[in-house]
Amino acid sequence: MPKFLITLIIPLLFAADQKTYIPDSKRAADIRTKIWPKLQGDLKAAGLKNDQPVFIRIFKEPGILEIWVKSGKQYKLFKNYLICAYSGGLGTKTKDHDGKCPEGYYTITPTQLNPVSTYHLAMNVGYPNAFDQSRSYTGNAIMIHGYCASIGCYAMTDQMIEEIYTMVYEAFLHGQKSVDVNIFPFKLTNANIDKYSAYPYVSFWQHLKPGYDIFEKTHIPPAVSVVNKNYSFR
């Protein structure tokens, strides 16, 4: 068996429920051994537990990835990370090779982790999702990854992806089934939508806004479905 196949197949761990496999590698495990104790200390300092579900929001402008951690019934902001690079500017991805990064409501499951990525560590955001597929958008393998170069992905630098990846991995290890990733062009306030009203994507951004508003009001990620080729929120 080729060596690279052994690397991918052997390091599979059970999640807490003993049913969900999480891909792993020695390199990723070594990174967690270094990073997780620091993150546990940071969580404790923030009044958060280290075994709770996580939630991710991304804002293209000003270039921030947020990690939220569940605390009681709501989620509390844990850390902000600067996005090192993304491509294509504002507006969502609609076709392969358009160079754009997606916007919308995505989900990461354990099998979407890549512990042997060329870009250090990576997580597939799940593009195209049900909304994208209903509109025949094309493309795939859109990642949150390390390094600082992007063609359709969100590049976070190796240092930052180590923390982000470890947080998601540990959430899966403690039983979280999937991690919601809400991706926006900017904070979808009325003032910002007016500010960017000359862009051709404004109607799409207005369509995303109800889900954004739900989280802003409740600090609970919206339940998202697709009905008649449109997002539906509750």
Question: How many separate helices?
Answer: 6
Write the CATH homologous superfamily: L,D-transpeptidase catalytic domain-like
Query: What's the order of the H and E elements?
Result: HEEHEEEEEEHEEHEHHEE
Taking strands numbered 1, 2, ... along the chain, how are they ordered across the largest sheet? 5-4-3-11-6
- Taking the alpha carbons of the first and last residues, their distance comes to 48 Å
Structural class: alpha+beta
**Number of domain units:** 1
Total count of strands: 13
- Which CATH architecture would you pick? Beta Barrel
Q: Could you name the CATH class?
A: Mainly Beta
CATH structural fold name: L,D-transpeptidase catalytic domain-like
The averaged pLDDT comes out at 93
Helix percentage = 25-40%
Major sheet summary line? 5 strands, mixed
Shape summary: globular
The percent range for strand residues is: 15-25%
The low-confidence runs, each spanning 5 or more residues with pLDDT under 50, are: 1-11
Rg, please?
Answer: 18 Å
Quaternary assembly: single chain
InterPro entries: LD_TPept_cat_dom, Transpep_catalytic_dom
GO biological process, one term: peptidoglycan biosynthetic process
Organism: Mucilaginibacter ginsenosidivorans
GO molecular function: carboxypeptidase activity; transferase activity
Characterize the structure shown:
It is a single chain. The chain is of the alpha+beta class and 234 residues long. Helix 2 crosses helix 4. The protein has a single domain, classed as L,D-transpeptidase catalytic domain-like (Beta Barrel). The N terminus is likely disordered. The strands form four sheets. It has a five-stranded mixed beta sheet, sandwiched between helices. A four-stranded mixed beta sheet has the order 7-8-9-10, with helices on one face. Strands 1-2 form a two-stranded antiparallel sheet. The protein contains six helices and 13 strands. InterPro entries: LD_TPept_cat_dom, Transpep_catalytic_dom.
